[in-house]
Amino acid sequence: MAELSLAISDLHAFYGDSHVLHGVTLDVPAGEVVTIVGRNGAGKTTTLRSIMGMIEKRTGSINICGQNVIAAPPEKIARLGVAYVPEERGIYATLDVTENLLLPRKVNDRGMSLEKIYELFPNLHMRGHSQGTRLSGGEQQMLAIARVLRTGSSLFLLDEPTEGLAPVIVQQIGKAIALMKSQGHTILLVEQNFRFASKITDRHYVMERGRVIDMIPRADVEKRAGQIQQYLGI
Amino acid sequence: MTTGAPTSNLPASPVATRGSGYAWYALALIVLAAAPFFIYPLFAAKVLCYCLFACAFNLLLGTSGLLSFGHAAFFGSAAYIAGHALKVWGLPFELAALLGTLTAAALGFVFGALSIRRQGLYFAMITLALAQMIYFMAFQLPFTHAEDGLTAVPRGKILGLFDLNNLYVMYYTAVAVFVIGYLLIVRITHSTFGQVLKAIRENQPRMISLGYSVNSYKLMVFILSAALSGLAGATKTMVVQLASTVDVHWATSGDVALMALLGGVGTLFGPVAGGVIVESLQFYLADSGLPIQAVIGAIFVLCILLFRQGVVGELLRLRLKWR
Amino acid sequence: MSTQVLFGQLLIGLINGSFYALLALGFAIIFGLLGIINIAQGTFYMIGAFGAWMLLHYLGLGYWWGIVLAPVIAGIVGMTLEKTLISRIYKIDHIYGLLLTYGLMMFIMGMFIYFFQTAPRPYPVPPELTGGYNLGFMFVPKYRVWVVVVSVVFCFGTWYVIEKTPVGRNLRAATENPMLTRALGINVPALLTLGFGVGVVLAGLAGVLAGPIYSVSPIMGGDLVIVVFAIVVVGGMQSILGAIVTGLSLGVLEGLTKVFYAHGANMVIFVIMFIVLLMKPAGLFGQEK
């Protein structure tokens, strides 16, 4: 399937005995960019990790193109074409930059070629043999995004991609995401930077304390700006 | 793979209930008192020594979550020192046992100082390798007589009054040692010191931030565990009149870990049960023609995969369920 | 003390060092990847040697079959144990891994002793490797050279695979961050099984190499694993290079010590471990976490 859709229904997730997600329900139609917003601790990262199969105990249903993957292991979910860019970026210290780039398993041949990637992110080519963690925060974020672009995945889970980065880099990332969207990929974004997100997002889900409490489509963003401020605790 | 966080997933001690506790203690004392009339006193006394050893091992593991794989060094070195004291210096048992215990404590200090800063698996490996040094030394030092070991160790008299060659006197002395050691362990576990250790085990970073000198606490319990293991070893030498390289071999460290695991690591009485079970198994299997090592190995594996709470742990769990 | 004695002991030291290096390397891979302390590493060494002996004794298959098949058999046994028993440990405290491999060691060794008794059985040097080279100051048996060459080749071959190939890259990634590596589409559980297999194949190979030198017995390798412990503590618990270099060096050092102070030979490795623990607890090639 070229474009993936995601539908989560009544997702509960647990860290040990701690009940962290309480029946999360949200829809990410194929080819759209959906953003989850909310304060710290709302469960946004846990939701992404649950989709990726990285949470031990989860119940409910997570449908990727109609296939329920609630019980699937992470590697299986990745091979369906789902790509994860974690909040901590997940660059390996024991691998150099090129190895980090080549690590994720290719899902198909429709991913971005190495040449195109180096075109988009020339730094990664120059510093290919540096240890992965020697890169700056911004470069690591580029690497984390670049490596999943190569896989041919078409559902991207991005957790706070602009966190702690300079405006120039944030712009570059914005361009990369816009490019991905233009190619028809589906993106689920967690982002605190609302201004950044609202430029490209088709719908926003608001999460609080492990639940989805509201959904704001693009058209209503201006209208409901005040309410959104409240949700974000600004 | 990043190794263990400070917290350990080993079972923690369940809450002891006071009232019925005293009844169990009374029963245990009766059993201990009557045992030599039903079981060969020499065997019973030997079992008690290993039970104390297992309890001492478990003191370290149960309170601080540290699995030492080198406790044979403490048990065995004390066994040798006590044996030498009894045989060559002609000291009475009390002094021999004291010497053995102090030797083990000193060794515990050295081992502990070197290994305490590490956690989990690193800690276990370091204790194992350190104990192996002691094992090799046991072959080199003249007074240990290498493979022959210290044989025909005389028992002497206890308190200058009672002849330990009388099997019943010998047995009740071992009981006294065991009871003293066991009660000491109970006291330590339930004391503030023991509580602090448990808190450290559950959340070390927090305890550090609260100002506790975490390593000092761990070192202290390590020394106590080593000392009591030494006491067990010294008494063992008196009972079986022999100290040998088996006592310092790493298989002995493994045996005591098995006893604690089988009996129930998170409990106080578990290691005693484990000691009784393992020693009895070894005794009864010896004549059966079955491969003892293989059987014990199989039990170990099954225990780890299916039965981690151990015998006593399981019984306590069931008792809670039926309340 | 003649030069002949000195070089003789050095050669023995090099041989032992080769075995130490292979065993320590396998151990370090298993520990790094799975977080399991494989006390049974010495048992797989024994299985390799015994496998070769059994192939010869029951099937008439000689050394050249043995050196290929026996480590593979050890690997299959190991991977089966990992898949069925050891992998159950990953979800609980890894200290149980130490106890589990200890129990497995006891069980396997016990069964072998039961069926084969402890008396050592000779395993012949293959005819192609008999004889030796006369260097003037000493006579070097061909087989000894073979042992060292094979060990060094496999050690550095393994190092190369881990550091320079895609499989090795995946292994290193899985060692550092298993969960994320799975999320990037790599089948980490299968890698763990494979890693364990590689670790014990190296041990089995050492066993086959050792057969003609030390004879074959169920108790071989029993105390060897403690030395391996000390080696990886000195080299750095997860360090591949540390295991290889330290293994070889300590073997040679042990041999040297035998010349000058025979009684201390067993201890030298532990004395060094003692010193390293005092001065650089993470090990010579290790990284402080």
Structure description:
The complex is a heterotrimer of chains A (234), B (323) and C (289). With 234 residues, chain A is of the alpha/beta class. Helix content of chain A is 32%, strand content 27%. Chain A has helices spanning 44-51, 74-79, 97-102, 114-120, 122-126, 137-149, 167-182, 194-200, 225-232; strands at residues 6-15, 18-28, 33-37, 57-64, 67-68, 82-85, 155-159, 186-190, 203-208, 211-217. In chain A, the strands form two sheets. A six-stranded mixed sheet of chain A has the order 6-7-8-3-9-10, sandwiched between helices. Chain B is mainly α. Chain B contains 13 helices and two strands. In chain B, strands 1-2 form a two-stranded antiparallel ribbon. The termini of chain B are far apart. In chain C, helix 1 (3-34) runs antiparallel to helix 8 (188-214), helix 5 crosses helix 6 (166-176) and helix 9 runs parallel beside helix 11. The mean pLDDT of chain C is 90. Chain C is mostly helical and 289 residues long. Chain C has eleven helices and two strands. Helices cover 73% and strands 2% of the residues of chain C. Chains B and C meet through helix 5, helix 10 and helix 12 of B and helix 1, helix 4, helix 9 and helix 11 of C.
Concise overview:
With 234 residues, chain A is of the alpha/beta class. Helices cover 32% and strands 27% of the residues of chain A. Chain A is built from 9 helices and 10 strands.
Topology:
The complex is a heterotrimer of chains A (234), B (323) and C (289).
Chain A: E1 6-15, E2 18-28, E3 33-37, H1 44-51, E4 57-64, E5 67-68, H2 74-79, E6 82-85, H3 97-102, H4 114-120, H5 122-126, H6 137-149, E7 155-159, H7 167-182, E8 186-190, H8 194-200, E9 203-208, E10 211-217, H9 225-232
Chain B: H1 18-34, H2 41-64, H3 72-87, H4 93-115, H5 120-140, E1 157-158, E2 162-163, H6 167-190, H7 192-202, H8 204-209, H9 214-240, H10 250-263, H11 270-285, H12 292-306, H13 310-321
Antiparallel strand pairs in B: 1-2
Helix pairs in contact in B: 2-6, 2-9, 2-10, 2-11, 3-4, 3-5, 3-9, 4-5, 4-9, 6-9, 7-9, 10-11, 10-13
Chain C: H1 3-34, H2 41-59, H3 63-84, H4 95-116, E1 132-134, E2 139-141, H5 142-164, H6 166-176, H7 178-183, H8 188-214, H9 224-235, H10 240-260, H11 265-279
Antiparallel strand pairs in C: 1-2
